[in-house]
Fold these 3 entries.
Entry 1:
Amino acid sequence: MSTANQPELQSAAVPEDSGGQMSFFEHLTELRKRIINSLLAVAIGAFIGVYISQHIIGLILRPMLKALHDAGLQERLVYTHPAAYLNLIIMLGLYLGIVLASPVVLYQVWLFVAPALYRHERGVVVMFVGSSVLLFLAGISFGYFFTLPYILHFLVSFKGPVEPMISINEYFDLILMILLGLGIVFELPILIFFLSLFGIVTPQFLWKNFRYAILIISIVAAIVTPTPDAMTMLIFMAPMVGLYFVGIGVSAAVVRKRRRRDLPNAAGGQT
């Protein structure tokens, strides 16, 4: 065999870069390092979050105060325990700290898993991390600017013969449930993306079972919705249905790309 062809044969035999190989104890050491770095980032983020939480509380209270103003009620919230407001500042600071530290935490996760991935899989992970953060923030924004004002106006409209005395801690629990729930709901296209990537669902399957998806979406909306009225439930359902159709498009793109990648392999096998 000619020696001129040996470099070509060697390069053809080299598999796609899949990262370095590590022993079990090296994996444990690397995992401990990433966990420590993530915890340090969360601690620093929480310290900053507690410092700025007193300024963020005004932003959180704005929808509730506006709902009280529109209902002709006194614009104030109360706390019923001496340490309630301090606990609220600390809890809000912790949540803000997690949000502030999330890029560092995701980067640490990336540093841990990247060496074990193929080159094309690393691109998928980067897209997954970026899309997850953007969709989660989009869900929170939708809840704050659209869903939350309607729900609060609906709730305070039932005044009756008594005047409401709203606890700031209970109000914080309510908006946390709404915003966090919508943030998770907006991750639906990411879930469909990975189900399609592993061949569990296809766009044809998703379209064929659309009516069952509507049923599941209705049940989820009924559980997450804090009020019994149908309008609030529809407000929760509308983005979920829209995201389901986005997921169908994402699934179609994944299937199309997989078929395009498999065609050369099939043609090579036939030759």
Entry 2:
Amino acid sequence: MTLTMSHASIPLFRRYLTALSRVLDKAEEQAKARKIDPSTLLNARLFPDMFSLTSQVQSACDFAKGAAARLAGVAVPSFRDDEASFEALRARIAKTLDVIGAIDPARIDGSETRDIAMKFGGNDLAFTGERYLIEFALPNMIFHTSIAYAILRHNGIDIGKSDFLGGLDEWRPVALAG
């Protein structure tokens, strides 16, 4: 089977965003059990000049839906950045997964050479679809997901690597031909 652009993107977006939603579940449960005000975690940062947990989740969603839409050659949906609870962040993730799921993978496949132009941080950027996915969109989505995880871990939420990776039970040992 040939690796296609849809196979290299959509399953990863789903896996990491689904895992992030589960991590937010655990964070909310542990905050309640330990009587931690949820806003303490939602506004937490690793360093003052970094995004808060809320902004990290929003950014992870934005990179996933933006990449899927740009690679498919459709308009990037815009979401308001108004989430103020764990429930609202999980709803944003669910909405992002719905957007990604509604895109026909055939529209993404073959986008390796599609021109992708965008503004980012006040800069005009231009990529081929392949470079955009591999060098920009995926690393940024995973970065923001991992920083959200790190913020929660740093603040004492009991989560581990398997929570970050998500779905380890889906991976089965493969017998190698010998």
Entry 3:
Amino acid sequence: MIGSAMFITGDLSRADALQSRGIEGVRLMLGVVPLLVLAGIIEGFISPAPISPTIKFSIAALTGVALYSYLVLAGRTD
């Protein structure tokens, strides 16, 4: 995002484009960090644990449904 702001500024000055894209990039990273933490917890504690595969698949299904629900429903104002 920052790289494209340097070369494709649109109607903005280079500094304004960098500032607006930088803010968008920070917002994006703030959304990605919790997902990476959750993935790390699952990979660190659930995947290597000697528990039933049924429980592991249930956790995978639950997190998958939660993630896709968030991706589909987030930001909607309807």
